[in-house]
Amino acid sequence: MVITLDGLAASGKSSVATGMATALNVPFISSGLLYRLVTYAAIHSHTDVHSQDALLAMLEGNQLRFEAKTTGNVVYLNQVNVTAECFSSEVDAQVSVIAQHPQIRTWVNQHIRQLEPPFVAEGRDMGTNVFPDASVKIFLTASSLVRAKRRVAERDQNLAEIQKGIEARDAMDANNSAPALDAMLLDSSELNLEQTVEQTLEFIKTKLG
Asked: 153-184 as b/e, with b when 16 or more CB fall inside 10 Å?
């Protein structure tokens, strides 16, 4: 069983996926964290994020590792846990650039496809590209203002700056963030985390019978 949860930047995918995975007692996979890991590694090594060839060479010269757990994911760069560092404003600003490179997307997708189901996979194109035959597909969204308000507590920026950044990311991610035709669209603007998770679980129950 593979369940995909795609959605827009800062739509709460990781939190919702964690809640779903915990309720279902399966691991959850954050593809976004893998992209963040590549971005952090590029910044850390002063690699040009606009050069796909330079990024691929950087990946060859460093050890990037991803651990999937029911309660969250952990990433390592050369044996050092850099999970927290992957959520900096600097990584926020560059990760969409990284995600535009086709061979970087291939690298991330290959890592995810090697994992053994069952699991909940969250990202941008899990239900459309990575797991088109997934058992259940959900697409999560919310208004840019709501998403900015949720993120403001995690960043050393004001609300307007964060909302502007989210809207810019939406524009950059548009090609990679379209929902699958058979996905449930869930707008969480008026829902809290618990309510959002409950609705996803109800949909899964209905879909799988």
From this structure: eebebeeeebbebbeebbeebeebbebbeebb
